[in-house]
Write a structure and sequence with these properties.
The chain is α/β, with parallel strands linked by helices. It is built from 8 helices and 7 strands, in the order βαβαβαβαβαβαααβ. It folds into 2 domains: 200 residues, Rossmann fold (3-Layer(aba) Sandwich), CATH 3.40.50.720; 37 residues, no CATH class. Helix 1 packs across helix 8, helix 3 runs parallel beside helix 4 and helix 4 packs parallel to helix 5. It starts with 8 loop residues before the first strand and ends in a 7-residue tail after the last strand. The protein binds nicotinamide-adenine-dinucleotide.
Length: 256
C-alpha cells in the first residue's frame, strides 16, 4: 500500500504539543508539508523546524485568525489537502460554577474554529477534488463525565459537524472523520492526573488506575503516536471510502 503523500500540504492545529505534535511528525514522515498552527509560540517553532514544516502563531478562538491561517497557507502553497482540527483544552468545574467565558472559549476553540477552518479550506479541496478533514474529538464526544460540560458539549458538537460535512464532501472527494481518543499520554492528561493526585494525596499511578484505566480493557495510556498513525491512515488514499465516521481509539474504555 502506498502511504506516501509527497507534495500534499496539511494544517495541523495545536501541533505544538502532545497529539498534535505526533500527528505533524507522522504526516511529515509520509511526505506531507505541515503547517504547525498553535497559540504557543515557544514550542510550535521547534516542532516545525524538526519536521521541516512551517509554524504559524494563531489564537484559533478568533474567527479572523482562522481565515488568515487558511489564506496565508493557500498563498504560500497554493493548496491545502489535509486539515487536522486538534487544538483543545480542558476545564473541570461543576455546572453551577462553570465560568461563562471559559464555556465560550471551549466552544470557540473546539467547535467554531473547526467549522470555520473547514468552511475556508472547502473551496480549495473541492477544486482539487481531494481533501481530508480529521477532527480530534474524544470519547467525551460520545459519552459524558461530570464536571466537564464545556469540553463534552464541544466534542459532541464536533462529531455533528463531522457527519454533516462528510455528507456534503463525498461528491468532491473530501472525506471528514472524527477520532475519539481515550486517555492519551500528553501534557493535558498528565497535568490533570498530577493535579488530582496532589488534591487527593495519593500517588500518580493510583489516580491513573482509578480515573483512567480501571474500566479499560488495555491497562495503559495510549501513546500520541498511536493516534497519529490513525490520522495518517485516514489521510492516505487508502482511507478514501471512510467518511462521516467516529474512530474510537480508547483501549476498550467504551466497550462496556
Ligand atoms: N490527551 C488525551 O487523553 C485526549 C483524549 C481525547 C481527546 N484529546 C484531544 O486531543 C487534542 C490534543 O490534546 P493533547 O492532549 O495533545 O493536548 P495538549 O495540551 O498537549 O496540546 C493542545 C495544543 O493546543 C494548543 N492550543 C490551545 N489553545 C489554543 C488556541 N486558542 N489556539 C491555537 N492553539 C491552541 C496548545 O498550545 C497545545 O499546543 C485536544 O483536542 C484534546 O481535547 C486528548
Amino acid at each position: 500500500m502506498n502511504m506516501r503523500a509527497d507534495g500534499k500540504v496539511a494544517i495541523v492545529t495545536g501541533a505544538g504539543s502532545g497529539i498534535g505534535t505526533a500527528i505533524a511528525r507522522h504526516l511529515a514522515g509520509q511526505g506531507v508539508t505541515v503547517v504547525v498552527a498553535d497559540i504557543d509560540a515557544s514550542s510550535g517553532p521547534a516542532v516545525a523546524e524538526q519536521i521541516q514544516g512551517y509554524f504559524v502563531a494563531v489564537d484559533l478562538r478568533q474567527s479572523a485568525a482562522c481565515q488568515e491561517l487558511v489564506d496565508s497557507t493557500a498563498r504560500q502553497f497554493g493548496r491545502i489537502d489535509i486539515l487536522v482540527n486538534n487544538a483543545g483544552f480542558q476545564h473541570i468545574s461543576p455546572i453551577e460554577d462553570f465560568p461563562e467565558d471559559v464555556w465560550a472559549s471551549l466552544l470557540a476553540l473546539m467547535l467554531t474554529a473547526p467549522f470555520l477552518l473547514t468552511k475556508h479550506v472547502w473551496p480549495l479541496m473541492k477544486a482539487h477534488r481531494w481533501g481530508r478533514i480529521i477532527n480530534i474529538s474524544s470519547i467525551h464526544g460520545l459519552v459524558a463525565s461530570p464536571f466537564k460540560a464545556g469540553y463534552i458539549s464541544a466534542k459532541h458538537g464536533l462529531i455533528g459537524l463531522t457527519r454533516a460535512a462528510a455528507l456534503e464532501g463525498g461528491q468532491y472527494g473530501i472525506t471528514v472523520n472524527a477520532i475519539c481518543p481515550g486517555w492519551t499520554r500528553t501534557p493535558l492528561v498528565e497535568g490533570q492526573l498530577h493535579d488530582l493526585a496532589r488534591a487527593q494525596g495519593v500517588p500518580f499511578d493510583e489516580v491513573l488506575d482509578r480515573v483512567g484505566l480501571s474500566e479499560a480493557a488495555i491497562k495503559r495510556l495510549i501513546e500520541p503516536e498511536e493516534i497519529a498513525a490513525l490520522v495518517g491512515f485516514l489521510a492516505s488514499d487508502a482511507g478514501a471510502a471512510i467518511t462521516g465516521t467516529t474512530q474510537v481509539i480508547d483501549a476498550g474504555l467504551t466497550a462496556h
